């Protein structure tokens, strides 16, 4: 019997990758979103405002899923509002489905801010030793990831479903208009540097430049989500979700530069965050020139690049990478090469005329 999936946040980086993975594996896939971006071909689109209990209830009234996947968040002005809004979205979907979730599986995608603290208190507390391990637990700060988890845990007690939590690092994936998209941002930055003759300067900290790090491909996250929804060994547990390789940005930066046919600038004496430098150079106007010259399909740079989020990840003052032993011992053995997946993303952006070929 065909399994049925409901994905909250289907138009995002992880949501769209999960939809494609499940479709390939024969699932019947429904996706909840605001309807601003097309869902992957083959999915059933359900339009709702996830912050509205009544809107969600109306959208899901005809569906009884075997698995519910959450990969959704909305950035707010502060962490108190992040908790209220993002915790509320998880609660609204769970309550709208209610008893129909009995016997199903609910998977929640959060991230490494579980260990680092939220943007309001990013890395300001005592950061756990690397590599991060699931048993290190929560930081003693308010965090909307914890609020989302708590809503999922409460629903499991109330409605009798199994659950899993998935914590990727920075995600490599394809999505237009996404607020957290480093791979796409770096592709746009490199393209701007090449077209306008700007130096391709690493915008982050010395700790990130020199330290060991890792990343998560959206397709690998999708593989782990499907595994968790179908494997008894993954029930009611939390898992780090990274590619499995590690690297240093001082190496990867030159690799990315070589891909785009440009020189990597020397590491700067002072940090040069992208948000400030792109504002100083008037990136929207610069990108419009690139788009016009190469007949690109998206002239609005802010639909492709998330300068602030890339700054947050690359500007961290500590080494950040994770341990995958827990899910490997439970049977999840997928591995991705980060450089290959970055280059595959760049190739796709070229094919879709989002960056110059």
UniProtKB/TrEMBL annotation:
InterPro entries: NAD(P)-bd_dom_sf, PRISE-like_Rossmann-fold
Segments traversing the membrane: none
Ranges of residues in domain PRISE-like Rossmann-fold: 53-356
Matches recorded under Pfam families: PRISE
Xref: PANTHER family: 3-OXO-DELTA(4,5)-STEROID 5-BETA-REDUCTASE
Protein name per UniProt: NAD-dependent dehydratase
Organism encoding this protein: Franconibacter pulveris
């Amino acid at each position: 019997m065909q399994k049925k999936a409901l994905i909250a946040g289907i138009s995002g980086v992880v949501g769209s990758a999960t939809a494609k993975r499940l479709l390939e594996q024969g699932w019947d896939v429904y996706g909840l979103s605001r309807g601003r971006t097309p869902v992957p071909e083959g999915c059933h689109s359900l339009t709702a405002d996830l912050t509205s209990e009544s809107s969600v209830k109306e959208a899901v009234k005809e569906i009884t899923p075997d698995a519910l996947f959450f990969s959704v968040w909305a950035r707010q002005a502060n962490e108190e509002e992040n908790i209220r809004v993002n915790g509320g979205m998880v609660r609204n979907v769970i309550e709208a489905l209610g008893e129909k979730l009995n016997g199903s599986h609910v998977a929640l995608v959060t991230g490494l801010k579980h260990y680092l603290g939220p943007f309001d208190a990013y890395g300001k507390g005592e950061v756990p030793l690397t590599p991060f391990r699931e048993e290190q637990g929560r930081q003693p700060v308010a965090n909307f990831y914890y609020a989302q988890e708590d809503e999922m845990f409460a629903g499991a007690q109330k409605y009798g479903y199994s659950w899993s939590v998935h914590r990727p690092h920075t995600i490599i994936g394809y999505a237009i208009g996404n607020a957290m998209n480093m791979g796409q941002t770096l592709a746009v930055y490199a393209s701007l540097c090449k077209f306008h003759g700007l130096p391709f300067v690493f915008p982050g900290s010395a700790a990130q430049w020199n330290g060991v790090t890792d990343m998560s491909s959206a397709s690998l996250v999708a593989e782990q989500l499907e595994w968790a929804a179908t494997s008894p060994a993954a029930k009611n547990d939390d898992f780090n979700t990274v590619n499995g390789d590690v690297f240093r940005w001082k190496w990867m930066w030159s690799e990315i530069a070589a891909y785009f046919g440009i020189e990597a600038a020397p590491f700067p004496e002072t940090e040069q965050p992208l948000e400030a430098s792109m504002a100083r150079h008037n990136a929207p106007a610069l990108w419009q020139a690139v788009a016009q010259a190469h007949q690109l399909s998206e002239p609005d740079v802010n639909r492709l690049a998330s300068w602030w989020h890339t700054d947050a990840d690359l500007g961290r003052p500590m080494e950040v990478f994770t341990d995958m032993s827990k899910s490997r011992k439970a049977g999840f053995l997928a591995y991705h090469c980060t450089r290959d997946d970055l280059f595959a993303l760049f190739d796709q952006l070229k094919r879709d005329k989002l960056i110059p070929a």
